[in-house]
Amino acid sequence: MSVSRTKNPRVVTTRTLTTMKRMGERIAMLTAYDYLVAKYLDQVGIDIILVGDSVGNVVQGHETTLPVTVDDMIYHAKAVKRAVKNALIVVDMPFMSYQTSIDDAVRNCGRVMKEVGVGAVKLEGGEYIADIVRHLVKIGIPVMGHLGLTPQSINKFGTYEVRAQDRREGAQVLRDAKVLEDAGVFAIVLEKIPSKLARNVSASVKIPTIGIGAGPFCDGQVLVVYDMLGLTEEFKPRFVRRYAELADILRGAFRTYIGDVKGKSFPTMKESY
């Protein structure tokens, strides 16, 4: 029988996640970009809330995450932070906010940590950002890694297809995971890679792995909340399990409202002062 986390909430930290992996407890992670969704996630006991740069796609309407800025992330992270009491909040660092130099990474990641007060930042990339990760961790900024399909590199990949399907790229992902662990990341997101590779990575590192389209063998899972709620209708990859179809519900509610207003049945005198 499952135990509700809402009755005995715990404050989740990076150290909590390490303990969860050791004890075999799966880590549940979802995205949030606003106060209300973050509040509901925290109330039901989500472990990690990711303020994802996917805000560029699902909130701002961009085709990729590349236009998202540090100021955008800080704005949304502040809204999320106001709602959360227990979950660990992780903020995506957007494209070109950390890749250019250690100084840029320190300045931008430092802004997020200082101005918002979240628990950690997330950076995409492997060996080539190891020195940046190492320095951030050294000065007290917890870092979550991200390997496999890294959306900020879409112009390099040219496609959102599954990554690391050949032996060479698979070996690189495994090597990157170990390098990032040595550099000090507390967890790694594995996106859209073969499940066998994800299992090998998860078994090869002591830190938690969190999968998205990486199969059942990771230490946790993450989805974009708009996807799992059925709000992003055009995006239906096999790894997204839809827990609701809110797009239909919203359209129905909006149509009913329009009909009530135009039909003069709203508002009634009981809904007036």
Radius of gyration: 20 Å
**Name of the CATH class:** Alpha Beta
Q: Number of helical segments?
A: 11
**What is the terminal separation in angstroms?**
49 Å
Enter the CATH topology name. TIM Barrel
| CATH architectural grouping | Alpha-Beta Barrel
What is the number of domains?
1
Morphology: globular
Order of helices and strands: HEHEHHEHEHEHHEHEEHH
How much strand? 5-15%
Largest sheet, strands/sense/barrel? 8 strands, parallel, barrel
Low-confidence stretches: none
Strand order of the largest sheet: 1-2-3-4-5-6-7-8
Report the strand count.
Answer: 8
Provide the CATH superfamily: Phosphoenolpyruvate-binding domains
Structural class: alpha/beta
What's the pLDDT, averaged over the residues? 95
Task: Give structural notes.
The protein has an eight-stranded parallel beta barrel with strand order 1-2-3-4-5-6-7-8, surrounded by seven helices. Helix 2 (35-43) links the parallel strand 1 and strand 2. It has a single domain (14-245), classed as Phosphoenolpyruvate-binding domains (TIM Barrel, Alpha-Beta Barrel). Helix 4 (70-83) packs parallel to helix 5 (102-116) and helix 8 (167-183) runs parallel beside helix 9 (195-204). The chain is globular, with a radius of gyration of 20 Å. The chain has helices at residues 14-23, 35-43, 55-58, 70-83, 102-116, 130-138, 154-157, 167-183, 195-204, 225-228, 246-262; strands at residues 27-31, 48-51, 88-92, 120-122, 143-148, 187-191, 209-212, 220-223. It starts with 13 loop residues before the first helix and ends in an 11-residue tail after the last helix. The chain is α/β, with parallel strands linked by helices.
